[in-house]
Fold these 3 entries.
Entry 1:
Amino acid sequence: MGLFDFFKSKKQGIENTKFNSVQFQNEICALALWKLKDHNLQPDVAISELKKVGLNDEQVNFILEKVKKFISQEGNTDQPHSTHPGIDDIKFRSEEYQNEIITYAQNVYFQNHHQYETVKDILLKEGLNTSQADEIVNKLQERNAQMVNEFQDKLDSGEITEIKIQPNPDHTKENTGQDQVDRYIAYGAYQMDRGDLDNALELFEKAIELDENATLAYANMGKLYSLKNDNLKALEFVNKALETEPSHPQILDNKVDVVYELLGEHQISESEFIANIKDVLQQDPENPNALIYIIQFYLRNNQTDHAIESVEKLFPKYYSEDITIQLMIDTFNRLPVEQALKQFDILESKVNDEAKYQLHYNKGLYLKGIGRYDDAIRVYDNLNKIQEFSWSFYQMGIMKNLQGKTDESLELLKTTFRLEPELKGDAKNFPQLQNLWNHPEFIEITK
């Protein structure tokens, strides 16, 4: 198991192939949009619903950003098209025009990296008004979802009984549209998920034959070769995918995973690994796994200033992750005390209130680690005035014990266990409380 495996496990979320599918993107964006509109665009309920579906924090943020763009366009009454009379209603409702405009919208969608907001903008420029453009985008979403559902429906009905899916030789670049390319990618992803890697490879290769810029086909081939334990080949296809979409967050994540595996297999050197990590950060300066690896590298090589810069990028979004906290403390421990305390102040000016609360908690850990118990206790006491937190009381109780103030320690531990009874087990095994383990009151409160 790698050094950062536990961090990766927290980031698992929805598997990339499913997450990037047209159907799933349509459905999950619709869910997020619904929850945001139902709650006056406040994100808390939407975030909760997205996490219930299984998205990780990164995927949640990606979907919210995507939906926010759509909302901002809906709400922008200053757009020159917003008051446009639009297409004559009789013409707009005609079957011929509806088929024509939806087909046109689908072509625009495929040509513009699956961006519905771009489709809407172009429809407005074509003369549709806002409500007409919204209606066509909704119908386009339904058509795309149906396209992905067809295959599963045929499987469920028994119409398709063969496990292997044969590419159609009549499908050539000259006579096949983007929708068929997407079908091959979807079918390939399905076969890869069920373990038929050879058939999946055949389908991805067919997609690339039809469209040499099929980003998701290359990305899926990268995953496929990882499953085949050929990570050098996997890296080749991940890089190919990044040629067309260099900033795609999921593909960049895949690249980090692949080069980490190559490092573990001794197929690339640490310098090559770090060069790849830096390439990822060039495209996505806040990629969490890449930042974790680069911070670790900087600390090993005593490049503390660079480590601090990377901690400042990692902390604002991933402040509650154990690995982020540990790397921050490890980095600040390399600095003189006053400089380290100044870094806490600098970082505080760059984060939101929730992250500030965690930052102060980390500052208390730092002060505790250098033996400045009274200063650390003040930090935790102030945090509890903002919002009581079991671990703040726990840390205060530990430090009071280290100061030999047993009665005060036990009172703080009582509060800790009232807020979080599960910490009783931790306290009975925590070395810095060992002298209390046989104390009658400690035994009583940890029952």
Entry 2:
Amino acid sequence: MTIGHLYLGLLGFGLAYALLAGVMGWFSDLGGDIHLDAGGHLDAGTMHPISGTVVATFITGFGAGGTVAHYYLGWSLTAGLGLATATGLVVAAAAFGILELIFKETQAGSEYTVEEALGREAEVITSIPAGGTGEVAYMARGQRVQSSARTIDDAAVAKGQLVVIEKVSGSTVYVRGKT
């Protein structure tokens, strides 16, 4: 067995892994942090630099770089190993960066925090009586959100009026009239 055969074998292994992982929906990546969050939702966590997908990508890049160095460029063993290692690291780093970006974007989700509601403009959809509770609607992360509402100063606000969210307590927002 020559070094060229080893490079081809690693390239083939990496490509087979990529195909298998794609077919299985990336479940083969055992390095990810998959758990249930406090709300009981499945959370895929974040990518790790040493994960099944990143390691397999390194192996694929190593095999591809070594194959090019050995068969196409005719380089020596040392130079070929250098190119194979460099190619593997570059391809694995690129894969990690892309997967990290994907995880960050998908983890952003459509849920929003209380802080994101503060300062938002809302429309009164059910009149808020003096000292009582009504309902407002506002946009958060591209979704229309409805919430029970009271005014900060216990003033009445008619349906259709615009208000600003000043405080959030549980599922109730406290608003003031928009000036």
Entry 3:
Amino acid sequence: MDGGHAGAGLRGRGEGVNLGLRPETFDPAAFVFEPWWFERPESIHGISHARRVMIHAHAIAGAVPLEPVEFAAVVTAVAWHDIGRTHDGCDPAHGAKSIARATMLGLHRTVAPEILERAFFAMEFHSTDDAIGRERGAALPHSESLLRVLWLLKDADGLDRVRIDNLDPNQLRFAASRDRVDEAWALLRRSP
């Protein structure tokens, strides 16, 4: 699979993310989000949100040194991070629910294990306190890599809090993320 073609990446129908996915050839605006992945595709945590998070993640990834496996994991985690959400309220367990949904739908079958490990870690802990992710990651192999993917997902997801007028730039982990606050507002206006 060529990481540069429109919609390259997760399609959910036998086409998975591979290590050839590169930020310089990836087009987040053309990424295909399948409505059937989501419990609630039209909600504030649905496809429009996922698209904006993907755009933010791609921009941040261009400024943060990532290994190819990490970039592929970021794309995977962003695509699936909220697919298991059943409501829009506070739900620290929705990351685990999204992993369960991705697995139930078989989306994971064509994703390389080293990508899936990082993506699932980021998905599980993206809606919890940083200390929990840091503690869980410290006990695992590749902890620095796991945390880079988690922090990038959390920042990209956090930037889209503009949609509920609840973005605190001090909560963002990367300078590149804090530099995108104005762009987050502009992106929301362009892609509500």
